[in-house]
Structures are given as structure tokens and as C-alpha cells.
Specification:
alpha+beta; Outer membrane efflux proteins (OEP)
């Protein structure tokens, strides 16, 4: 460094001073089209504590130990989650790769060559007095050796902030990838819970179908006996047979539905469907109360919104990267090493070599390509901002839909139970009237069909309430919060 002139020192100091600035617009989070409250949250009185969604294992709110075990397997074995986690690791590696451009590149070089001239015959190799190998004989040819070793360095100071804008964009993309990972987890967890409750609904409907088929079999027996006794007509028997066959067909269809849910759950937990079985179990029909929230909370709680906002920042950083192309590239180089024709004396002061230099390059004309690149980057930023705002709007729509469904299904559940109880009572009365010859069997069919439909509606509404609760939890962001993963900001 004692040979470094004052001018080069001045350049280094100026580069370090300018490195504190970066061209291009600084990022400001885009405004979001929010409302002060959710329209459908009026009168929403949750039973759960206010921090019910602050935990990651939101599915535990349903109180089903089998579901808890399956959800734990999703986070480890689901292939979509694994792929999203790998994408996140890749994004973090890109940040580290871009950050490496801020530092000088240092190289170590070494070489050894032997060259000769003249002579075509065979000769012998001997060592001269100074240790240099030479070839003698064979027509008077000679050879010589050369050895070099040096350390070199080059550095492009980030005077205009191109590298820092690149790193800023890479960091934002890594944070967006972290949000994508959480979205993948939340999606897989929600899909598993929905499929699980669908399977339990199928179990309950199968139990209804079996009980109904047994009732219809008894009704067929009674109709057959009455026909054999000449009390009624044969059409009563046919109607009873039709009812029984339809109930058995419904049972078979529900069994297929259950099998499909079981296969879907197997894939979600990372198993081949042929190796996975989920036995019938008591249905825990808990519908958790959820804490009320405000729309602005979605900006922190929804990973898809966080990811969209981070991509807007990454797009904004690209504007600075493109603006930096209007300024010259500055490169500092230097090397220090040794050169000698004797390997033994290579590392010595008389054989030392050094060099340093400064280079600057500026594009004077490229047909407007740089201007077009800046415009393209600004357009990409505007697209990302629009997508962010659209994501916010769709998120609020999603919450409003689920709040409305939660309220309606809660009221429907009570009405469905009342309708089912009344239909069962009516079916019993009509069947007794039929046995006493007061009504035709057509009335029995009508009453029993209404009772059967009402019983299934009770089960379906109960399952819908649970799946709607899952959808509402997902629309509120689950147990995730923006910034909860410290790795995303590194």
C-alpha cells in the first residue's frame, strides 16, 4: 500500500462516501383500500378468548385429538409445504449471493511453464550453475523455466446503489417466499381440516343411512304382510321396496364419498392412499367461537397479503437497479506477486511485482434501451401495487363471506334440529295411521322421506359450520403474523 498514490486514495474515499446513497425511489408501503369495520361482523359475539388465533395450532380449537395428530403430520410430510420451504431456502441463498457483490473479489494465481527452442534430436536435461534446467545435445536446443505467483483483487464499489437495490429486492422476495411458505402451510392445514370434517360428516350420514335402511326394511315387511293378508294393494310393497333400495344406494354413495376424503387426507399427510386408513370415530362437532378483529389486522395476519406487499417492494427496488445503469461503472483492481525463472528463489523481494488501477465505463448510446428498462421496471412496480391492493380487497371479501356464512349457519342449525324432530314425529304418526288403515302408503313415503332428508340436513349443517369456521380462520390468517419469522429479514 506504500505505492498507492494519493489520487487513488481519494477515489476510494469518494467511493465510500457515495456508497451511502442509492438511486431510484425509496419504498413506501402502498395504501390499502380498507373499511373501518367488517359489515357482516355486526352482532358477532365470539365465545373464545381474544388471543384464540395467536397460536399456530389453530386447529386445536376444535378439540379433536385425531385432527391434532393429522395436522402435525401435514407440517412435516406435505409435499407442497416441503416445496415451499425449499423455495424459501433458495430465496435466502439468493440474498446471500447478492450481498457478496458488496465485497472485493480476491484471487490467488500460480503458474509454472517450460519453453524451448531449436534442435530436433534427442538431448539430455542438466542443471545449470544457477539451478535453471537446460537441455543439452541433440542439435544445440535449449529450454527455460518461468514461475509466477500472485494475489489479485478487484472491486466495484456500489457508488450508485445498484447492488444495494438488488439486495433490497432479494430480501423482499425472500420475505415474500416466507409468506408463501406460511400460505402453503395454512392452505394444507385448512384443506386437511375441511376433508377431515367431511369424512366425519360422511360417517354420520352413513349411520343415518343404515338406520334408515333398517327402518325401511321393517316398513317393507309390514307392507308385505298386509298385502299377503289382502289388507292393502301390491303398490304399497313396491313403494316400500323403492324406498329401501334408494336408502341402500345413498349408503353406497356416502361410502364412496368417505373413501375419497380418506384418500385426500392420506395425500395431505404425505402417505400413499393404499397405506392409510382412518377408522370411524366419534364426531367432535365443536364449532369454536372466534375473536372479532378489524380489517387493518389482515395486513399483518394474512400471509398472502404480506407476500404481495413484499413483492411490491421488490419491484420498487428494481427501478433503482435500472436507474443505476445511467451512471458509470467503476472498478478498482490490484495485485501483488512474484515472478522468477527459479522456483527456489521465487518468493523474494527482488522478484516482486505489483499493480493497481482504476477503470470506469459509461454507455453513451444504446438506442433508448435504458430508458425503456426503467419504464418497464416502473410498470412492473405498478402491477405489483395493484395486485397487492386486489389481494387486500379479496381478503376482506373472503372474511365478509365467512362471517355471513357463520351467522346464517348458526341460525340454520337450530332450525334444522327443530325441523328434524318435527319430521320424525310426523313420520311416526303417519306410519301408525297406515298400520291402522287410516292413510295410504304414499303418505308414509312422503313423511319418511321428509324425516330422512331432515336428519341428513342436521348433519350437513353441523359439518358446514365447522368447515366455515376453518375457512374463517384461514381468511383471518390462521395463527401467523407478519414478521413472525426472523429468518425472513436476514
Amino acid at each position: 500500500m506504500k505505492h498507492l498514490p494519493s489520487k487513488l486514495t481519494a477515489v476510494l474515499m469518494a467511493s465510500a462516501a457515495l456508497a451511502g446513497c442509492a438511486v431510484g425511489p425509496n419504498y413506501v408501503r402502498p395504501s390499502a383500500p380498507l373499511s373501518p369495520t367488517f359489515k357482516e361482523a355486526s352482532g358477532w359475539s365470539p365465545a373464545a378468548p381474544a388471543d384464540a388465533l395467536d397460536r399456530g395450532d389453530w386447529w386445536s380449537l376444535f378439540g379433536d385429538p385425531i385432527l391434532n395428530g393429522l395436522e402435525a403430520r401435514v407440517q412435516v410430510n406435505n409435499q407442497n409445504v416441503i416445496a415451499a420451504e425449499a423455495a424459501y431456502r433458495q430465496a435466502r441463498a439468493i440474498v446471500a449471493e447478492d450481498r457478496g457483490q458488496l465485497f472485493p473479489t480476491i484471487t490467488l494465481n500460480g503458474s509454472g511453464t517450460q519453453s524451448g527452442s531449436g534442435g530436433g534430436g534427442k538431448g539430455s536435461v542438466v542443471t545449470g550453475a544457477d539451478g535453471t534446467p537446460i537441455i543439452t545435445g541433440g542439435g544445440g536446443g535449449t529450454s527455460a523455466s518461468s514461475y509466477r505467483a500472485n494475489v489479485g483483487a478487484s472491486w466495484q464499489p456500489d457508488v450508485w446503489g445498484r447492488i444495494r437495490r438488488t439486495i433490497e429486492g432479494a430480501k423482499s422476495n425472500a420475505q415474500a417466499s416466507a409468506a408463501d411458505l406460511e400460505s402453503a402451510k395454512l392452505s394444507a392445514q385448512g384443506e386437511l381440516a375441511t376433508d377431515y370434517f367431511g369424512l366425519r360428516e360422511a360417517d354420520a350420514e352413513m349411520a343415518i343411512d343404515r338406520a334408515t335402511a333398517a327402518d325401511y326394511q321393517r316398513a317393507l315387511t309390514i307392507a308385505q304382510n298386509r298385502y299377503n293378508a289382502g289388507v292393502t294393494v301390491r303398490s304399497d310393497v313396491y313403494q316400500a321396496q323403492t324406498q329401501l333400495a334408494n336408502a341402500q344406494a345413498d349408503l353406497a354413495g356416502t361410502e364412496q364419498t368417505r373413501a375419497n376424503f380418506e384418500h385426500a387426507i392420506a395425500v395431505l399427510v404425505g402417505e400413499a392412499p393404499g397405506n392409510f386408513t382412518l377408522s370411524a370415530a366419534a364426531w367432535v362437532a365443536t364449532v369454536p367461537g372466534l375473536p372479532a378483529t378489524v380489517p387493518s389486522a389482515l395486513l399483518q395476519r394474512r400471509p398472502d397479503i404480506a407476500g404481495a406487499e413484499r413483492r411490491a417492494q421488490a419491484a420498487n427496488a428494481q427501478i433503482g437497479v435500472q436507474v443505476s445503469t445511467f451512471f458509470p461503472n467503476i472498478t478498482l483492481t490490484g495485485s501483488y506477486g512474484y515472478a522468477s525463472n527459479q522456483l527456489a528463489n521465487l518468493i523474494s523481494t527482488p522478484n516482486s511485482l505489483w499493480s493497481y488501477g482504476l477503470a470506469a465505463a459509461e454507455t453513451l448510446f444504446n438506442g433508448g434501451a435504458r430508458v425503456a428498462a426503467v419504464r418497464s421496471a416502473k410498470s412492473a412496480r405498478d402491477q405489483a401495487v395493484a395486485k397487492y391492493r386486489e389481494t387486500v380487497l379479496e381478503a376482506m371479501q373472503d372474511v365478509e363471506n365467512q362471517l355471513s356464512a357463520t351467522d346464517v349457519l348458526g341460525r340454520q342449525a337450530d332450525l334444522r334440529r327443530q325441523a328434524s324432530a318435527a319430521a320424525d314425529a310426523a313420520a311416526t304418526i303417519v306410519f301408525n295411521q297406515y298400520k291402522s288403515g287410516q292413510v295410504a302408503y304414499t303418505d308414509v313415503v312422503t313423511a319418511q322421506t321428509a324425516a330422512y332428508t331432515a336428519r341428513r340436513a342436521v348433519v350437513q349443517t353441523a359439518a358446514q359450520r365447522q368447515t366455515t369456521a376453518v375457512a374463517l380462520i384461514q381468511s383471518l390468517g390462521g395463527g401467523w403474523k407478519a414478521g413472525s419469522d426472523p429468518k425472513a429479514s436476514r
